[in-house]
Amino acid sequence: MLWHPYTQMKHASRLPKMVAGNGVMMELEDGRKLIDGISSWWSVIHGYNHPVLNAALAKQAGKFAHVMLGGLTHEPALQLAEALVRITPAGLNHVFFSDSGSIGVEVALKTAIQHWKNLGHLGKTKIVSLKNGYHGDTFKAMEVSDDSDFSRAFADVLHRGYIVDIPPGGFDATAADVQPAVDQLEQLFSSNSERIAAFIVEPIVQCAGGFHIYSPLYLQAARELCNKYNVLLIFDEVATGFGRTGKLFAAEHAGVTPDIMVVGKALTAGYVGHAATLSTDAVFNSFLGADYEKALMHGPTFMANALACTVALKSIELIEQNDYLSKITQINAIINREFDTISSPHIAGKRSIGAIGVIEVKDATTLSGFKAFAMDEGVWLRPIGKVLYLMPPYIIEPDELISIINLMRKWINRST
Ligand SMILES: *Cc1c(COP(=O)(O)O)cnc(C)c1O
Description:
Blueprint: E1 18-22, E2 25-28, E3 33-36, H1 39-42, H2 51-61, H3 75-87, E4 92-98, H4 101-118, E5 126-130, H5 139-144, E6 162-164, H6 175-192, E7 196-201, E8 205-206, E9 212-213, H7 216-228, E10 232-236, H8 251-254, E11 260-263, E12 275-280, H9 281-285, H10 306-321, H11 324-339, E13 347-353, E14 356-361, H12 370-376, E15 379-380, E16 387-390, H13 398-414
Parallel strand pairs: 3-15, 5-6, 5-7, 7-10, 10-11
Antiparallel strand pairs: 1-2, 2-3, 4-12, 8-9, 11-12, 13-14, 14-16
Helix pairs in contact: 2-10, 3-10, 6-7, 11-13
Bound molecules: pyridoxal-5'-phosphate (PLP).
């Protein structure tokens, strides 16, 4: 029997079955058609069954679907590495592929710790991360994520580093709003710099941990502090990458280049699980030398899978050729306009950035039953805790987007 994620299987006997997808629509076995409001965990940015992506995959499959990257190279991997270096913040010049976001984060953390080891700083092994952060489900990724339902069962076997606060005030916070969080970070760095290898953050938007948005000023200050105290800065852009926040990468809001950056989810447009961990020259160069032990000791079997690389390349081409950033700006304008007309005593806050819209309620029970209601109304949305959010495919039409938001409004008003 199939075992589902984050699911109490006692209640999971009759999950709806998807049989076809087309554009933003998912078709279920019982004939229902749903607009996917969350892009299948934020990955299906061009919608389902995209003819251009399908054709690129078929063509590559006719040559070879996969070859090991140990001791061999191939064109899709070389081209995707080059494309990622070109589109990510300047200075990230080296690309390590892996098969999922969590593993991409593992690679980032291993790279950071081994970087300092290779340079002779043996004590720099701890990782600093943000409150509410989510970086994946593998062990080290859980350690740098905030304590939550995701990791509670393992609390006594996790070796946690340090957790610091995100600044209040959202994207438009003032320097004064941000300063206490910056001071906290500096205090931690200044008294522990010999122990700290890296600071990992989801830049600008923390997704699975509750969709908290914070100021680019904080990232700029973090960059300076990381330089000052010899700490590597890691951006986990697994959720925010490829346009989701209105810039191609969230780092661009701050004009900051991290030392290491992880991308995943939308990288392959929802077709094949894959991730990439990018590093600067300074990080990469610390792995060079006469000793084999200085090399990065990681190598997923399916890293740089040729189908994954091919579909990622084609996806980047679609983003660039079809001016997706303007589409995302339009999506954001519609979200803001429609959200302005939603009000209820149940609402604790509303926020948006790029193609992300979030309504947070005061009490999670307000949202119980919402998923089934949305399905009956032809929409696939899945609240997380107190957060009702949408992250649609970028190809969504305005009327489809409005119908999703109308549904959110209808539910919130119904429970008033
Ligand atoms: C989803 C996510 C991950 C984990 O990616 P998987 O592909 O599910 O392993 C890591 N970091 C962030 C920010 C994510 O949103």
